[in-house]
Amino acid sequence: MASQRDVKNRISSVKNIQKITRAMEMVAAARLRRAEQRIAALRPYAEAIGRMTRQAARAAGAEAGRLPLLSEHESERNVGLLLITGDRGLAGGFNSQVIRAGVRLSGELAEEGLQSTWYATGRRGVSSIAFRGHELSGSYTGFADRPAYADARAVAEDLITAYVGGRLDRVELIFNAYVSPLTQKVTRETLLPLSHATIAGEEEDSEGPGGPQALVEYEPGPEEILKRLVPDYIEISIYRALVESAAGFFGAQMTAMRSASENAGEIITDLTLQMNRARQAEITQEIMEVVAGAEGLS
């Protein structure tokens, strides 16, 4: 049995760890609230971009299908995989589940005879993909906790350039969609090509196809407007994934740190009982030694 001093030292260590996990839980909770506010502020803008893109696509008609970002390549050989992860850990399986989904998709593509080209945001994703022996064509770190729109634009520019240049024939986006502090859903979206059917076929505006719709005149023409809107649509899709991933990370970290604090409390309770038993054993041993000494003197 461990001595009373050893158990007391272990209790002190666990209490120190519990203080750290509680502090990290509170920090994550504060950052989560701010991230939720950013998601709420982003939604109207994202919906407006989507609505304008749909309207321009309908107005452009067949001309929309001729845009490079809306047209599929004749054959698929290389698929880009963009993984959105965090810069830090201590968030349960938040990062690993995205990485596993990416690796699983890469295996499915290999079975179809397609090659995977890796892109990743967040240090955890970059390091994990490199550790698995995959070469990264794009790595973006340092902004996972608080992504800016400029960060999404930088990622989008690389992917758009690679797609238009023919180095990529398709781009898949994998990230943790934010549902609640306790739930993050691994989501896969086809980022490129942004098919004309996807844009024009999304949910109609609130008036509906049979209801009254505003008459919009485009200057320049709708195809030119659409040409400018589609890159913005891709950028906002990446930015939304980054913001949702940030909120999901803080939710996962808050949950993980709360669980760690509770586990530390249980360990402290068990160690306290063990220390009390050790103290009782030492007292009993001392009493037995005193009694044995007294008997020896009598």
Question: Care to describe what's here?
Answer:
- This protein has about 300 residues and is α/β, with parallel strands linked by helices.
- The chain is built from six helices and five strands.
- The protein has helices at about 5-60, 95-110, 125-130, 150-165, 195-200, 220-295; strands spanning about 80-85, 115-120, 135-140, 170-180, 185-190.
- A five-stranded mixed β-sheet has the order 3-2-1-4-5, sandwiched between helices.
- Helix 1 (about 5-60) runs antiparallel to helix 6 (about 220-295) and helix 4 crosses helix 6 (about 220-295).
- The longest helix has about 80 residues, at about 220-295.
- The chain is elongated.
Notable traits:
single chain, 5 strands, alpha/beta, Pyruvate Kinase, Chain: A, domain 1
